[in-house]
Amino acid sequence: MLRLALTSKPIGNRSETSVNGLGLVKASTENVQHVTIVLFVRRSRNDAYHSTSQLRQLCTMIETMPEFLRDHGNSTVLILHELCSSSAHPMSDRRIFNFIPDEDPVWLLTTNPDRLTRRREEVLSLAQMFSATGGGWLTTGIQDNDSQVSDWVPVDEASASIVQRQLEDGRRRALICAKNNFLIPLLCQNTGAQGAFMPMTNQRQFADKW
Q1: Cα torsion at 195, 200, 205, 210 (round to 10°)?
Q2: Over the range 101-120, which residues count as b (16 or more CB within 10 Å of their CB) and which as e?
Q3: Global pTM?
Q4: CA angle, 36 as apex, 33 and 39 as ends, to 5°?
Q5: Which residue has the higher pLDDT, 119 or 20?
Q6: pLDDT tens, residue by residue, 138-194
Q7: In whole angstroms, what is the distance from residue 85 CA to residue 209 CA?
């Protein structure tokens, strides 16, 4: 059994990917087409250093993996861990995509579409990248009346508009939170009220987290 993991982080205007020892699990059965299953985990640069978000993402994907992939007899499971802000870095900066094989069908899993990107304009390009291999991009966390947030939903042309709207809503909420975190302490200072908020002088710092 071969194990390998890739971790990618931004360096300057681009991102750098390194190998660190856990992650790739290979299984094989004759006469079954080989597929690659990518469990994609991302942490933004401003997330807390000791955040358990990445571990929760990974555990969720392993525990709830779609049955047709979990029971596939000839597959490689590749865990990709990216340390990068997708708001600050477009796809062209994120070298981690260069390490995803494309010679076999690739199924990429995320616990939420914003783990792969927060840029609405990249949704279709990413979906087509994986569908072109014969696989696709599957995600939970879709906020839609036709599905539960825990359901695995393919990101494709049919669902792209829903995903894009969800990303826009998330970005808008992030900016509102940044604005409130900046204004509330100023209000407390002006009125003499005691507040538990720290002023955030750079709203972009908060927004880049997303």
Answers
A1: 30
A2: eeebbbbbbbbbbbbbbbbb
A3: 0.70
A4: 150
A5: 119
A6: 999 988 777 778 899 999 999 999 999 999 887 777 666 655 554 444 444 554 544
A7: 6
Contact call for residues 126 and 139 (beta carbons, < 8 A): no
Q: For the packed helices 160-191 and 123-131, what is the interaxial angle rounded to 10 degrees?
A: 140
Distance CA 70, CA 42 (A): 22
Of 44, 41, 38, 123, whose CA–CA distance to 89 is shortest? Answer: 44
What confidence tens digit (pLDDT) does each residue in 4-44 have?
444 444 445 554 444 443 444 444 456 789 999 999 998 87
Please name which of 124, 87, 96, 104 lies closest in space to residue 40, comparing C-alpha atoms: 96
pLDDT of residue 93: 86
Q: Which tokens in the block code for residue 118?
A: 């927060």
Residue 62 to residue 132: CA distance in whole angstroms: 24
Domain boundaries of the chain, sorted by first residue: 5-158, 169-208
CA 100 to each of CA 26, 50, 164: distance values in angstroms, whole numbers, following the listed order: 15, 27, 23
The architecture of the domain spanning 5-158 is: 3-Layer(aba) Sandwich (3.40)
- Cα–Cα distance list, 159 to 5, 16, 117, 147 (Å): 30, 31, 15, 11
